[in-house]
Design a protein that fits this description.
Length: about 250
């Protein structure tokens, strides 16, 4: 509903390439009316959906007997252990947390660091985030553009503000100019706060600490989500443990 021109442009690429008429159909409109009609139609044999968990649950209730592929919400954690390459971890988070203004299903939202490396990680991360250039998405100098709507930007701004009110520390960013939210790093975030627990879908990373790998994995699993996760360590056994114990569809 909010970005119909992208879908129409993509469809035009197919037709320009010679795809026969009637093979591909593109319908745009609000999900509540158009989406329900498509999902419940018995002629539709499979539904593939990417979006919020609430909408995914709604689809499962109304779809009837058909195949479903659902990629739903996330609050992706990244664990940084004491033996990690801190520069590499900070570079990866500075990319994975802010690309497309954080509006990515597996965007880095939570970073769980060991206290021994928290300060070094933040010292490495903050300058990289501050180097992200916001502004007109059409400008070649812009490295991070707007959120999809001003309402979404206001929601992200409020979530960051609420985390700070609850005791977290805003190290950089967080201000809003229309639909642009300055890339934010928020440290000392309570893992139980909404900034950790709810899908943010915006350009901010919440940093919390965990005393050991056991508590880090428990914190990574401490939300209702499980789409993606990551771990930085030089210990292969730690990687294997993360793959086995972090409840996520993808562990990087």
């Amino acid at each position: 509903r909010t970005t119909p021109l992208t879908a129409l442009a993509l469809a035009r690429c197919f037709t320009d390439a010679g795809l026969p008429d009637g093979v591909l159909s593109v319908l745009t409109g609000p999900g509540r009316s158009l989406g329900d009609a498509l999902v419940t139609d018995p002629r539709v044999r499979k539904v593939s959906f990417t979006g919020s968990t609430a909408t995914g649950e709604h689809i499962t209730r109304i779809a009837g007997i058909k195949k479903l592929s659902l990629e739903l919400g996330s609050s992706c954690p990244v664990v940084v252990l004491p033996d990690a390459d801190i520069e590499l971890a900070a570079s990866a988070v500075a990319a994975g947390g802010y690309i497309n203004a954080g509006q990515v299903c597996i965007s880095v939202q939570r970073v769980i660091t060991h206290p021994a490396v928290t300060a070094d990680f933040l010292d490495a991360l903050v300058p990289k985030v501050e180097a992200i250039t916001t502004g007109d998405p059409g400008s070649p100098d812009t490295t991070m553009g707007t959120l999809i709507t001003t309402d979404e930007a206001e929601r992200v701004e409020e979530t960051i503000r609420r985390a700070v009110d609850e005791g977290a520390k805003l190290l950089t960013g967080g201000g809003r100019d229309g639909a642009i939210v300055a890339p934010a790093v928020v440290a000392g975030v309570d893992p139980r706060s909404s900034l950790s627990q709810d899908e943010l879908f915006g350009p901010a990373v919440a940093v919390s600490s965990a005393e050991d790998v056991h508590s880090a994995i428990a914190q990574a699993n401490g939300t209702p989500y499980g789409l993606g996760a990551g771990i930085f360590t030089s210990d292969v056994s730690g990687v294997v443990r993360a793959i086995r114990e972090i409840d996520a569809g993808n562990v990087h």
